[in-house]
Design goal:
binds nicotinamide-adenine-dinucleotide; five-stranded parallel β-sheet; 12 helices
Length: 402
């Protein structure tokens, strides 16, 4: 049973903690006191880790959350699972990683294995995290370093930490072995690659592949609309090909911490190396333009103007069955609607509170736009919620939509 500290108790860190604490002693370190207090009371703030799992972990004595750096001082393994957003110029922002390095440097005074699970560009563990911890440490300590990029898909139950193959690589053979030993306590399928850079790049390419294909299908939806044919029927037709095709569905755009963000980490590296990343840049533009396209379609169907019209957005999280609103395309749809002079409300009981406002009851508007359809939402209730309904998800039959 290893002593493990996990820095960051959000979607990634808490999910790892829930699995790892079955066979390891885990301290979940987070800088957010409110989150830590809630976790220690058995309240989980993320989908995928329920209160019962957390309570079992707490009462087994194998898990506790803390904001106190001293609580990670006796760890043997430290996992970094902090945000890696973009800055105002859409460039990688490693400030949270830097602060996690500071926590390690200030509190861990013996050699440990540091594993980074946060998504970042190739070279982050070798050229940023290792030198940063060494620079910030008071004395020279030879930690070991490895990367194991996280692939969790919050809200998903068929693929979890146990059965999703996990990539990993250490900076040294010993770090690789220790990383394998740790993850094999709760993950069935470990895939070692030849260097940390391969694992880091593979993670970025996985999400870039999704971003580019989503942009392609979003552009295709605009072409099929101009052709006067159904994008969904056309995609289903293409999908009858048993090889060489993978179906993606159009939407109001992409959201979350990964798909709108990670490809820009790859584009940043490409720029530094002087090689083109044209697909990433264009895919990002196409996806960011989708909310305006949706609003233009709604406007065209409603006499060419939305001025003074009551419009309700249904579903404002970035994907079904999660409360996560980071980078949600709903925000840009609302912005475009307001710009067109509409009076906008939103309904999403999974999200509940967003930007200081509460979810409004379903209905009462002249126009409804479905951005995200949670399983708990009754499709028939959506259909009758407004005289005009526009569905961006392709899941509601008999209404207008992409
Ligand atoms: N959410 C996903 O679906 C997903 C999937 C795969 C990979 N990732 C990657 O994993 C990383 C973490 O993402 P997330 O979704 O778990 O983020 P999150 O925002 O859900 O959680 C991050 C947590 O880290 C805490 N934190 C921030 N800085 C800290 C610090 N210096 N010390 C201690 N705690 C700190 C925050 O308070 C927060 O609770 C990112 O790099 C992300 O790209 C996320």
């Amino acid at each position: 049973m290893a002593k493990v500290a996990i820095i960051g108790q959000g979607y990634v860190g808490l999910t790892i903690a829930a699995f790892a604490s079955k066979t390891n002693q885990v301290v979940g370190f987070d800088s957010n006191q409110k989150v830590v207090n809630q976790l220690n009371q058995g309240y989980s703030h993320i989908e995928g880790v329920d209160g019962a799992t957390l309570t079992t972990a707490l009462s087994s004595g194998n898990y506790r959350a803390s904001t106190n750096g001293a609580d990670i001082s006796d760890a043997e393994i430290v996992v970094i699972a902090v945000p890696t957003p973009l800055d105002s110029e859409r460039k990688p922002d490693l400030a949270f990683i830097e602060s996690a390095c500071k926590t390690i440097a200030e509190n861990v005074n013996h050699p440990v294995l540091v594993i980074n699970e946060s998504t970042s560009f190739p070279g982050t563990i070798r050229n940023f995290i290792k030198p940063m911890i060494e620079k910030l440490s008071a004395s020279k300590i030879e930690h070991e370093y490895a990367i194991s990029p996280e692939r969790v898909d919050p809200g998903r139950i068929d693929w979890d930490q146990k059965n999703t193959p996990r990539l990993y690589a250490g900076l040294t053979p010993s770090a690789s072995k220790r990383t394998r030993d740790f993850y094999s306590t709760f993950c069935d399928n470990l895939v070692e690659v030849s260097s940390p850079e391969v694992a880091e790049a593979a993670k970025l390419f996985e999400n870039t592949f999704r971003q580019v294909n989503i942009a392609l299908v979003n552009e295709f939806a605009q072409i099929t609309h101009a052709l006067g044919i159904s994008v969904h029927e056309t995609l289903d037709a293409a999908n009858t090909k048993p090889y060489g095709f993978m179906k993606f569905s159009p939407s109001a755009g992409v959201g979350g911490h990964c798909i709108p963000v990670d490809p820009s980490y790859l584009a940043h590296v490409a720029e530094e190396l002087g090689v083109p990343a044209t697909f990433i840049e264009r895919a990002n533009e196409v996806n960011l333009e989708m909310p305006k396209y949706v609003v233009s379609r709604v406007m065209a169907d409603n006499g060419g103007s939305l001025k003074g019209k009551k419009v309700q957005l249904i579903g404002v999280s970035y994907k079904p069955n999660v409360a996560d609103t980071r980078e949600t395309p709903a925000e840009l749809v609302i912005e475009a609607l307001k710009h067109a002079g509409a009076e906008v409300s939103w309904h999403d009981d999974v999200v509940g509170t967003w930007k200081g406002a509460q979810s409004s009851p379903l209905g009462g508007a002249e126009i409804a736009i479905v951005v995200t359809l949670h399983n708990a939402v009754d499709k028939n209730a959506v259909i009758v919620s407004a005289p005009y309904v526009f569905d961006t998800t392709g899941k509601i039959e008999g209404v207008n939509g992409l």
